[in-house]
Design goal:
Elements (H helix, E strand, L loop, with lengths): L1 E5 L3 H12 L3 E5 L3 H11 L13 H10 L3 E4 L2 H6 L3 E4 L14 H16 L4 E6 L7 H10 L5 E6 L9 H6 L4 E4 L3 H10 L1 H5 L4 E4 L1 H31 L4 H8 L20 H14 L5 H25 L6 E5 L15 H10 L3 E5 L4 H7 L9 E3 L12 E4 L4 H4 L3 H7 L4 E4 L6 H7 L2 E4 L5 E2 L2
Helix pairs in contact: 1-3, 5-6, 10-12, 10-13, 12-13, 13-14
Bound molecules: uridine-5'-diphosphate-glucuronic acid.
């Protein structure tokens, strides 16, 4: 089938390429000419660069472009004319007050309305993949209908991809949610997702508003589970227990399941944004949402924890240098939105320290993130992980990159001024740490003080 995907961010590019891989003919549209040029140059073999870093995406785009199943354009009108369905995948970032900013979504809806009106066809499906507050489908419908009298069905079709594994998630999602009251649109959407259903991926049919809520509810469950986990991990450490041991039994209860790794807080562009946006929807309907607000408050505190612990342990940070391994909010991405590395680095520097930071892919992003930070000169970046340790008083780890897990602790010990590791991601085995003799502090278990 022929599909148009509007917006070439993580969702649009990964889902667009996945649709192509499933055999559809996909046109990805963006108003930013620079991005479309970059994508076309990539497909023509003129460049190796894509607008974003995501494992597996270059291969997927290259293969499908070679088979003429994916193309990139700024021409929304031309693309819609030839499409069986139009997917909106633009961002819905938070406004200053945390509400969802629907500016891009509304603008795209206007453009779609005009394009539909000028088209020769008389029936259209517009599916929203962007994460949008309950009831947004009505806004999209109203805007489109203000520009055309043609029949348009709006489908709410959220995605569940996680960055760093977005391609896998788009090719093999845990489920597909199709929210619409139109029988005709439902049939066409089921045809689009037929290749997925044939692989055994479940499809859930529901109303638009249920699908919109489904996405926020899923992210809120996951975010709440992480905040609760970190609460318990902090308690375990304070009480002399070990969260990893507690957790072993907890995960045996499949109802509780995953997302129970202790951490320096959850980051990324989704959990914080979505939970916060959802609290506005709760308030709009006058329903109490203290629990969700607490999830966010807990996470904010968690992100400040490592800097506090380092200060407590080293006494004053004046004149000290701390090596930081990991800038990205998690492994597999260069995205630093909401990354725990940011409050950590700021906290260390505000307390008088210098920071030597290393990340395999997020250094450029970090320079942008800290560009307005007054004391950004206190951060220096190193080309490899071991150089960050030269002359440093301690090492703090906040991203679970494979290359950190495989680090040679002998080298780490030799390079650090004193053998001190604060490991927010719990990457090393206690035996290894003890064998080398480190002071080793994780989020949710007793410190190892074998120096
Ligand atoms: C999240 C959801 O997992 C996706 O299902 C959803 O589609 C996406 O948001 C979205 O709304 O677009 P993402 O933010 O990319 O995906 O990353 P996750 O893998 O969920 O990790 C989020 C944060 O939670 C990371 O900082 C991670 O380190 C942290 N985390 C995760 C923990 O602290 N503990 C855990 O047990 C798991």
């Amino acid at each position: 089938m022929k599909l148009t995907v509007i917006g070439t961010g993580y969702v649009g590019l990964c889902q667009g390429a996945a649709f192509a891989e499933e055999g559809h003919n996909v046109t990805c549209v963006d108003i930013v000419e620079r991005k479309i040029k970059m994508l076309n140059d990539f497909c023509a073999g003129l460049s190796e660069e894509l607008p974003l870093f995501e494992p597996g995406l270059p291969e997927l785009i290259r293969n499908n472009s070679a088979k003429d199943r994916i193309q990139f354009t700024t021409d929304l009108k031309g693309s819609i004319e030839n499409s069986d369905a139009v997917f909106i995948t633009v961002g819905t970032p938070p406004k200053e007050n945390g509400e969802a900013d629907l500016t891009a979504l509304k603008k795209v809806s206007e453009d779609i309305g005009s394009a539909i009106n000028d088209s020769k066809k008389d029936y259209f499906i517009v599916a929203t993949k962007s994460t949008v507050p309950a009831g947004t489908h009505k806004i999209v419908k109203e805007i489109i209908s203000s520009r055309t009298n043609k029949q348009v069905d709006i489908v709410s079709n959220p995605e569940f991809l996680a960055q760093g594994r977005a391609v896998k998630d788009c090719l093999n999602p845990s489920r597909i949610v199709i929210g619409t009251d139109s029988e005709k649109a439902r049939r066409i959407m089921l045809d689009i997702y037929k290749p997925y259903h044939e692989q055994g991926i479940p499809i859930y049919l529901m109303s638009n508003v249920d699908a919109e809520l489904h996405k926020y509810a899923a992210n809120s469950y996951l975010a709440a589970q992480i905040s609760l986990t970190n609460n318990f991990a902090n308690l375990a450490k304070a009480a002399g227990g070990d969260w990893n041991k507690v957790k072993e039994g907890i995960v045996a209860d499949t109802r509780i399941g995953k997302f129970v790794h202790s951490s320096p807080g959850f980051g990324g562009s989704c959990f914080e944004k979505d939970v916060e946006q959802l609290t506005h929807t709760f308030e709009q309907y006058d329903v109490d949402c203290t629990l969700l607000k607490e999830v966010l408050r807990q996470n904010k505190l968690q992100k400040q924890l490592l800097a506090k612990r380092i200060k407590n342990h080293l006494g004053s940070l004046d004149g000290k240098t701390i090596a930081v391994w990991g800038l990205a909010f998690k492994a597999g991405t260069d995205d630093m939105r909401g990354a725990p590395s940011v409050p950590l680095i700021e906290g260390l520097i505000e307390a008088g320290a210098k920071v030597k930071a290393y990340d395999p892919v997020a250094v450029n992003e970090s320079k942008k993130v800290f560009s307005n930070f007054e004391k950004r000169d206190m951060i220096c970046y190193t080309e490899d992980k071991y150089s960050a340790l030269d002359g440093s008083d301690a090492l703090a780890i906040v991203t679970e990159w494979e290359e950190f897990i495989g680090a040679d602790l002998g080298i780490v010990k030799n390079k650090l001024k004193s053998p001190i590791i604060f490991d927010g991601k719990d990457l090393f085995k206690p035996e290894e740490i003890m064998r080398h003799g480190f002071y080793y502090s994780c989020i949710g278990k007793p410190d190892i003080r074998d120096q």
